[in-house]
Write a sequence for this structure.
């Protein structure tokens, strides 16, 4: 320490004051906390260690690290980040690096300037958290973190003898509160600029429906009550049994697993779904939670205008990029449109059923011959399912080989993907075109904001069969065994045993415990509002809103003016608030009259200084405007008499007299200046 | 006029025209048994004589007289040779008070101020020999050159108007005033007065350099000391008593109390102030404003009276938040006056 001290210019080693240091470090913890989910554990360790080191430095037990140690630490940090990032430079790597630098800064935080650097970095770290999540909870948390950091900055500007953390927090809150109107204006009007460069987001684990299904997967999804997406319908909401949200089409089957195979080709929607054949449309907006996959979900035969979304030849939608954050898209679905084989035909024709499951193949071939048409054959299968099978979320495990044989003849229990898989397999074995479709079925309408919520436990698999003349027709074998599942959701189809395997929270949601339900709907509609109007407020919605506001598509100039006016407006709001919050004083009529006089004089160019007594001000104004001596003297004498000479209240008429004299002077003032004008 | 107060404080005479003033004074019955005009008349010769001794310092003279009327002790701070001692002597003579001067040095002891018991061989008992503090007006010259121990010997005397020697309390004569002078604390060989002691002084005034006209007159005129000897007493003790009683009866309206409260509140809440005004400070402000109003022939206090005395009354009680030791306060009192609304 002594060595350090002699190095500084002033000869005195500046110590960041104790309270400020504590506030700063607390702010750092608050800021880094939400990042912890994305960080490798060792980085968290480094952060904690740096904090400990800084605390030790403050206590004078440890020294600041010498230069070469710092250099080593930085090199190690960069190398460590590169190693754990596996060479790829993604946003997660970048934020890890940022957090590391932020933590290392702690152990060289000596001067006031360093402290400011840490504060500005804190704001930056706060901003980066929004790359990972834009939910309402995170937004609220980060606003509070902003208050915290601002309070630390305020603390830094207080005298060392006079650091008051609570007062700083209050002040910081007030400062941010004052910034709110301007924030709103900028949020509404400021153009959403496309990023100048793109850092790829690291691929997290995808959630929800995936590109391959082994019967059993969807049962895992049933454990989760997370929201898959929300839907806002323009018109009436379809019946739950009609809401089949198609996501993935599974064409290939091997070793007990259905997979997408080669994804369908991208097709222009006006060619695949010609306009004259479309029929009635259902339009809606889907607000999809991030899945880290590209699948989008829509009712049958969707058409999307968004250029970032492709329509595939198998009538599914695919986003150009995996969904790293909330995405919303507007869809028009045509349920009556007849979907034809088209370019899919050659692919389906070459699809072998494989050579396992001999018993099922034999059965299908036999029954297929007996029935003769795809619809009759399908009915036979469904009859079989209806009579012999049991729906449960906990079926016995199936072997990898000949899994459908085992399901069909031995276990006879399963859930949607078992039924759908077996159905498609048998259709194909009998020589008909069929495929499995994965997605969600049903959804729950929020009674408050009227949108439909589709949760992971609504995940479902069903089949589509192609027949001459009708095109692709949806067949849901699950509907045969557990019709309640389709009409009334998962809950209705669950057995007691199934239910015991689900979490208490999911059960609460499924079970409909009166009050909790209502609360959850409320919470959901608030979140939905946030997604719709805050996260979903992108360039399109902004244009829509601004066009509504201006009556036409606004020019850059108009937006600029709007921002300027909005900024001034928000200043005015702050001004009005300050004006309203000034201490209220009970004023007697004479004082009120004086303030009227002062206001009039001010309008005529003479501003009253705060220290100027009423008498002195009236005198000054009268001299300046050459008001008649008599009235002025009477007014001044009256003011002094009433306000300061302590007249007993019984002579109240005296006050009225003084007031009259003052108002007469005021009239003179108005008259005189009007004449001159 | 004190250059520091000249910026804001308007000369209180200019507010009301003679007509208006008489209209006011005509309406009230006067202060006690004397009308304001009569009181002004009583004070006029004293002011005139003091003005003739200390040239061009009318404001300082009025302030010091105000301080006397408000029964407060006065601290005069300035560089050596600015007329501090002269003013104190002149005040004592004009007011007809018996006075003693204590020249403070670093080796003055409390006994040198209060007095000492000595053994009388004739009577065979101890006899108390009164120190210089036993007089109506004590001039404590260069008080900050004494050590804190001796400085604090004056404390009890100033506040309680009595001294205790060997366990015996002895009352000091009435009236009792202390006029202390001090050099700026930045000068060599000084001990800054602590807050508690500064607080005992009702006012602290500074004299400042005379203006050129006054200085010319000073250089051309005779010896100031000799003029001092020729000074006659124009206010006897009875008159002083009357004036002090009248001061206490000067009217302070609700409106004015609110103004004083706003001033005090501002010093306690504004971040530029390290310490706010104490209730004693607020009382001192009102008391001094009363006396100032009386000196200017008013039977009630107007805001200008408060503003006129405010720098002298509060500056030595305030400390800037960025100032760890000093009691400069001139900028603070200007800020105070400029920020607080009169009505």
């Amino acid at each position: 320490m002594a060595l350090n001290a002699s190095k500084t210019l002033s000869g005195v080693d500046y110590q960041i004051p104790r309270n400020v240091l504590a506030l700063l470090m607390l702010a750092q913890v608050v800021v880094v906390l939400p990042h912890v989910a994305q960080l490798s554990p060792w980085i968290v360790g480094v952060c904690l260690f740096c904090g400990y080191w800084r605390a030790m430095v403050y206590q004078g037990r440890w020294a600041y690290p010498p230069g070469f140690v710092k250099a080593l630490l930085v090199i190690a940090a960069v190398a460590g980040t590169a190693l754990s990032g596996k060479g790829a430079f993604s946003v997660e790597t970048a934020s890890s690096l940022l957090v590391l630098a932020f933590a290392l800064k702690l152990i060289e935080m000596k001067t006031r300037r360093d402290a400011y650097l840490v504060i500005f970095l804190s704001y930056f770290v706060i901003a980066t958290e929004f790359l990972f999540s834009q939910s309402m909870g995170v937004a609220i948390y980060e606003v509070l973190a902003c208050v915290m950091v601002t309070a630390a900055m305020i603390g830094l500007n207080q005298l060392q003898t006079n650091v008051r953390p609570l007062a700083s927090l209050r002040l910081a809150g007030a400062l941010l509160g004052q910034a709110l109107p301007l924030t709103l204006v900028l949020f509404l009007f400021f153009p959403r600029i496309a990023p100048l460069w793109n850092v790829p987001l690291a691929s997290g684990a995808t959630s929800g429906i995936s590109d391959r299904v082994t019967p059993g997967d969807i049962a895992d999804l049933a454990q989760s009550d997370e929201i898959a997406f929300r839907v806002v319908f323009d018109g009436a909401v379809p019946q739950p049994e009609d809401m089949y949200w198609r996501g993935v089409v599974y064409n290939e089957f091997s070793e007990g697993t259905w997979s997408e195979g080669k994804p369908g080709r991208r097709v222009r929607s006006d060619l695949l779904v010609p306009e004259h054949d479309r029929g009635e449309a259902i339009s809606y907006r889907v607000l999809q939670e991030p899945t880290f996959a590209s699948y989008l979900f829509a009712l049958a035969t969707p058409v999307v205008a968004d250029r970032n979304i492709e329509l595939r030849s198998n009538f599914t939608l695919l986003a150009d990029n995996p969904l790293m954050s909330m995405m919303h898209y507007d869809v028009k679905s045509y349920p009556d449109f007849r979907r034809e084989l088209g370019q899919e035909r050659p692919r389906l024709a070459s699809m072998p059923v494989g050579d396992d499951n001999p018993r099922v193949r034999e059965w299908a071939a036999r029954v297929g011959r007996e029935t003769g048409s795809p619809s009759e054959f399908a009915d036979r299968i469904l009859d079989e399912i209806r009579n012999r099978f049991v729906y449960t979320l906990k079926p016995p495990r199936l072997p990898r080989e000949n899994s459908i044989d085992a399901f069909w003849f031995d276990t006879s229990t399963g859930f949607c993907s078992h039924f759908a898989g077996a159905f498609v397999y048998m259709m194909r074995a009998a020589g008909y075109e069929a495929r499995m479709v994965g997605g969600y079925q049903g959804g729950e309408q929020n009674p408050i904001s009227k949108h439909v919520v589709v949760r992971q436990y609504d995940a479902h698999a069903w089949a589509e069969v192609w027949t001459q003349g009708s095109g692709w027709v949806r067949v849901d074998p699950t509907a045969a065994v557990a019709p309640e599942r389709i009409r009334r959701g998962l809950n209705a189809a669950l057995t007691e045993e199934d239910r015991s395997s689900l979490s208490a929270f999911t059960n609460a949601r499924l079970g409909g415990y009166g009050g909790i339900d209502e609360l959850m709907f409320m919470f959901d509609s608030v979140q939905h509002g946030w997604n719709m109007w805050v996260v979903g407020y992108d360039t399109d919605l902004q244009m829509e809103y601004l066009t509504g506001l201006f009556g036409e598509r606004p020019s850059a100039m108009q937006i600029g003016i709007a921002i300027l006016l909005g900024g001034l407006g928000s200043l005015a709001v702050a001004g009005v608030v300050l004006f309203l919050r000034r201490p209220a004083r009970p004023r007697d009529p004479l004082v009120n009259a004086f303030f009227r006089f002062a206001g009039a004089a001010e309008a005529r160019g003479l501003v009253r200084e705060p220290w100027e007594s009423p008498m002195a001000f009236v005198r000054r104004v009268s001299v300046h405007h050459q008001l008649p001596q008599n009235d002025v003297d009477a007014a001044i004498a009256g003011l002094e008499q009433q306000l300061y000479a302590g007249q007993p209240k019984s002579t109240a008429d005296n006050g009225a007299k003084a007031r009259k004299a003052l108002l007469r002077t005021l009239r003179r003032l108005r008259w005189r200046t009007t004449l001159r004008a | 006029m004190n250059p520091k107060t000249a910026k804001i404080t308007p000369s209180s005479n200019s507010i009301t025209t003679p007509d208006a003033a008489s209209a006011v004074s005509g309406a009230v019955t006067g202060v006690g048994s004397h009308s304001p005009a009569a009181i002004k008349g009583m004070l006029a010769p004293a002011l005139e004589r003091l003005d003739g001794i200390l040239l061009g310092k009318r404001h300082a003279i009025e302030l010091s007289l105000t301080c006397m009327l408000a029964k407060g002790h006065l601290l005069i701070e300035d560089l050596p040779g600015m007329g501090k001692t002269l003013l104190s002597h002149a005040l004592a003579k004009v007011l007809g008070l018996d006075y003693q001067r204590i020249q403070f040095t670093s080796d003055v002891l409390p006994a040198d101020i209060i007095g000492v018991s000595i053994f009388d061989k004739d009577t065979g008992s101890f006899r108390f020999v009164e120190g210089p503090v036993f007089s109506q007006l004590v001039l404590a010259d260069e008080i900050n050159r004494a050590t804190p121990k001796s400085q604090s010997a004056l404390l009890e005397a100033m506040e309680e108007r009595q001294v205790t020697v060997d366990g015996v309390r002895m009352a000091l004569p009435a009236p009792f005033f202390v006029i202390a002078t001090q050099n700026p604390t930045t000068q060599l060989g000084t001990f800054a007065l602590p807050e508690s002691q500064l607080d005992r002084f009702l006012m602290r005034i500074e004299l400042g350099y005379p203006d050129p006209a006054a200085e010319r007159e000073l250089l051309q005129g005779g010896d100031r000391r000799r003029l001092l000897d020729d000074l006659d007493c124009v206010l006897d003790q009875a008159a002083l008593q009357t004036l002090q009683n009248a001061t206490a009866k000067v009217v302070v309206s609700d409106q004015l109390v609110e103004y004083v409260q706003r001033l005090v509140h501002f010093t306690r809440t504004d971040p530029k102030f390290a310490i706010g005004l104490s209730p004693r400070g607020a009382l001192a402000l009102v008391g001094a404003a009363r006396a100032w109003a009386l000196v200017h022939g008013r039977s009630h206090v107007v805001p200008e009276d408060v503003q006129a005395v405010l720098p002298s009354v509060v500056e030595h009680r305030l400390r800037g938040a960025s100032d760890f030791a000093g009691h400069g306060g001139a900028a603070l009192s200007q800020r105070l006056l400029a920020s607080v609304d009169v009505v």
Observations:
- The radius of gyration of chain A is 37 Å.
- Residues 212-514 of chain A form one domain.
- The longest helix of chain A spans residues 556-581.
- Chain A has 27 helices and 19 strands.
